[in-house]
Design goal:
Layout: H1 13-18, E1 33-39, E2 45-51, E3 61-65, E4 97-98, E5 104-110, H2 113-121, E6 124-129, H3 136-139, E7 156-158, H4 161-167, E8 170-178, E9 190-196, E10 199-204, H5 209-220, E11 227-230, H6 247-258, E12 262-265, E13 281-289, E14 295-307, H7 318-323, E15 329-338, H8 351-369, H9 373-379, E16 384-385, E17 390-391, H10 397-408, E18 421-422, E19 425-437, E20 443-449, E21 455-458, H11 468-480, E22 487-490, H12 507-531, E23 546-549, E24 552-555, E25 558-564, H13 565-572, E26 576-582, H14 587-590, E27 594-606, E28 612-622, H15 629-648, E29 679-684, H16 708-720
Parallel strand pairs: 1-12, 10-11, 14-15, 21-22, 28-29
Antiparallel strand pairs: 1-5, 2-4, 2-6, 3-5, 7-15, 8-13, 9-10, 9-12, 13-14, 16-17, 18-19, 19-27, 20-21, 20-26, 23-24, 24-25, 27-28
Helix pairs in contact: 8-16, 11-12, 15-16
């Protein structure tokens, strides 16, 4: 039916533009009370006492929950050691220790939000101060080694790195840094918790329905089936909502103590610390090459900050391990512990920050060699994954380079820095390579054909605003042979069939095959029912003898013999249902699976003021089969916008005296707005990958940001002759 891939409008568009879509904090619950989270103002120490005398004068105050009066969790969770599948050590007031500034230390509940906020402001907190480690340079003196980097080894080595550097006469050795960056989705984290005996309903803004269910159940020592997590719409997550953070269980604890439902939404400043961020990194990159540009050695050493609570690593070296043909290579990852909130996943974790170092270093090497930066990348193009020594499941990077260079006009580039101008502006052109792994997890879906001929598909996945409702509806319609408008896809409830976290660009690749399998299972049931019915024109037919289109089943060798699905269900007397599970096989052991892309950018730099603008960007990507051309292009364009923010704007500034973000708001934490974005040209290479999953779909949510930071920094060098190795590239660094 050619439904998959069609640029149809979002199925949830009207609900969103009309205000009918309910986000977490908008759900109406009878008897709802309102909570405010109180966070620490010191980076290390203990809460000795919280004086609520003045707070009690506020009308409508219902509860001040502190370490002194909080409900006690089961013994196995009281020290915060319940770990979600992707790791988080929670602080749930079971202890009075403070590990970082902005850590949750109390919850205030009142009849209205205004009363709760006023009462929270009146609390007086007495601390015991302890020495805090806040300086990254100092923390680097004692480094920790993470056990793993995602699922890979912390360090890798291939070949003889010493010999490789001796063999290559053209060498470079530089440090590249990236700052702390914070998630700022339009919807901050929010929770509504309501108990009914020992059963808990959690409305939670999340990227992981089943994770909220299981982790919350473990914290309270109740069966997972006693927890129902609900989230029909997530107002942006980008990694931060892939974990369950402390505010969620704290809201449930307050609701339990109060005996009434409680709602808690983080304020904007509380997005900086208690719910993770991209950590700052220091990356040493060394390259050696022959005079013709062939790499002989590469080394990528990453130091990133983590909290004193747990070891969380930004996997910067992952891309370096597989991107270019380098026979001698080392990568390492180390951690510097600080009294700051625990870092977390942020759009393209590792690749976004790691590509800045890798692709900047490749650009610098090209200048040393007197080569075109694109030619250098082609010279070291890999036909198989050199890190895993596996063939690619598919790789269209060469086409991405060619198409991108042609659309951008790369051959017109004068390679000399400061050689291109437009009026009083210096013009610079830069490029970089993008990649992101193709991930897949197990997923389940149920399908039900109703008597009116419409179908409902269900899975406990989540829509972060990326178009999951729409894409899954298209896959479902294609799988069952119904028009899109006759299919409804339901998600956002943990009672629905199993689904993984929406992280690592996995949702379509994981849930999509389950949706497809459920549709095929439903088809088989329908054929079986019709084939056994003597009153059906399909009587006696087998599954391989029939076709499906526009809600009808017909004989392939006699298309005139057909019957509507609605008629089959009506005679059957009940809805027809099927459930299917789709799991990854062993293909990942046989192939290395990645999306690839090339990004070309132009910058304008005001020679007098140093102001940097990006008038145009061209991104070309090989991402398997797009499920929806419109939402797919939108995702990739959004990634490029994020990359512009990473390159030029985003930076969380930490007060060195107390470890608190000083720009913890949207006024001073700068992100791109419409006025910052001009022409973004996104193109897709037609790519068939039979190995990644039955749909041939690769994740697209994160690859768009990869390489953009380096491409812009490279373009700034071309424009100004100044090499900036510390993100963001701000005007003071080019003046």
């Amino acid at each position: 039916m050619n439904v998959i891939g069609a640029p149809i409008n979002r199925t949830d568009a009207w609900a969103k533009v009309s205000g009918a879509a309910q986000y977490t904090a908008e759900h109406q619950v009878e008897g709802l009370t309102h909570a405010v989270l109180v966070t620490s103002t010191i980076p290390s120490g203990r809460v000795l006492r919280i004086d609520d005398t003045d707070a009690k004068q506020v009308p409508g105050l219902l509860l001040v929950m502190t370490p002194q009066n909080v409900m006690r969790l089961p013994k196995e969770t009281k020290d915060g050691k319940v770990q979600p599948p992707i790791g988080r050590r929670l602080t749930l007031l079971q202890e009075d220790d403070v590990y970082y500034n902005n850590q949750p230390i109390a919850v205030v509940v009142a009849d209205t939000f205004e009363h709760a906020r006023e009462a929270a402001a009146r609390l007086r907190v007495e601390y015991e101060h302890k020495d805090a480690l806040l300086d990254f340079e100092q923390a680097k003196q004692k480094l920790d080694v993470p056990e793993k980097v995602l699922t890979e080894s912390t360090d890798t080595r291939r070949g003889d790195i010493v010999d490789g550097f001796l063999t290559g006469p053209v060498r470079l050795d530089h440090i590249y840094t990236t700052p702390v960056e914070n998630h700022n989705p339009l919807e901050t984290h929010a929770t509504i918790a309501e108990w009914d005996g020992d059963k808990l309903t959690m409305y939670e803004s999340t990227q992981y329905m089943k994770g909220v269910q299981r982790i919350t159940a473990a914290i309270f020592g109740i069966p997972p089936e006693n927890v129902t997590a609900i989230c029909p719409y997530t107002g942006g997550g980008f990694g931060s909502k892939g974990s369950l953070w402390s505010h969620g269980p704290l809201t449930a604890m307050a609701a339990k103590m109060l005996g009434r439902p409680v709602k808690l939404s983080l304020d904007r400043n509380q997005m900086f610390g208690p719910v993770g961020q991209r950590p700052n990194t220091e990356q040493r990159f060394r390259l050696a090459a022959k005079e013709d540009g062939q790499l002989t050695a590469s080394a990528h050493d990453t130091i990133a900050y983590t909290s004193v609570l747990e070891k969380w690593i930004e996997p910067c070296g992952i891309m370096t391990r597989m991107m270019y043909e380098s026979p001698n290579q080392e990568t390492t990852h180390r951690l510097a512990k600080l009294n700051r909130g625990t870092p977390t996943f942020m759009r393209a974790p590792g690749e976004a920050s790691g590509s800045f170092a890798l692709e900047s270093a490749m650009d610098e090497l090209a200048y040393k060699l007197g080569m075109d930066p694109l030619d250098l990348r082609l010279k070291n193009y890999t036909e198989r994954d050199p890190g895993k020594d596996l063939p690619w499941s598919s790789k269209s990077l060469r086409q991405c380079y060619e198409i991108g260079a042609e659309r951008f006009g790369w051959k017109e580039r004068n390679p000399q820095p400061r050689s291109m101008r437009r009026g009083d502006k210096l013009i610079g052109w830069g490029m970089a390579t993008a990649t992101y792994p193709t991930n897949r997890s197990a997923g389940e879906c149920s399908a039900c054909l109703l008597p009116d001929g419409s179908a409902v598909f269900r899975s406990a996945t989540q829509d972060l605003g990326t178009g999951t409702y729409t894409v899954m509806t298209q896959i479902a319609a294609d799988s069952i042979g119904l028009p899109v408008e006759r299919v409804r896809f339901e998600l956002g409830n943990s009672k629905l069939p199993e689904s993984p976290v929406s992280g690592g660009s996995t949702t379509v690749a994981s849930v999509g095959p389950a949706v497809q399998a459920a549709g095929h299972a439903l088809r088989l049931k329908l054929v079986g029912i019709a084939a056994a019915d003597q009153g059906s024109p399909l009587f006696g037919a087998t599954a391989d003898q029939v076709g499906f289109e526009q809600g009808e089943i017909y004989l392939l060798n006699d298309a005139g013999k057909r019957e509507s699905m609605a008629a089959i269900v009506a005679r059957h007397g009940a809805p027809v249902e099927a459930t299917a599970k789709a799991e990854p096989g062993d293909a990942s052991k046989k192939y290395s699976m990645h999306s690839f892309g090339a990004i070309f950018v132009e910058v304008e730099v005001d020679e007098a003021l140093g102001e940097i603008r990006v008038p145009r960007a061209v991104g070309v990507y090989g991402v398997g089969k797009l499920m929806n051309e419109k939402t797919g292009y939108s995702q990739l364009m959004g990634g490029v916008v994020w990359g512009i923010g990473l390159a030029l704007m985003e930076e969380t500034v930490i007060d060195p005296r107390n470890g608190r973000p000083v720009n913890g708001n949207l006024a001073e934490y700068h992100v791109p707005v419409n006025a910052d974005i001009q022409q973004i040209d996104v193109q897709i290479v037609d790519e068939d990958d039979p190995h990644v999953n039955p749909l041939g779909a690769k994740g697209i949510g994160e690859i768009g940001i990869v390489g953009v930071g380096a491409a812009i920094a490279n373009a700034v060098y071309h424009a100004t002759g100044k090499r900036v190795r510390d993100l963001p590239v701000t005007l003071d660094k080019v003046l």
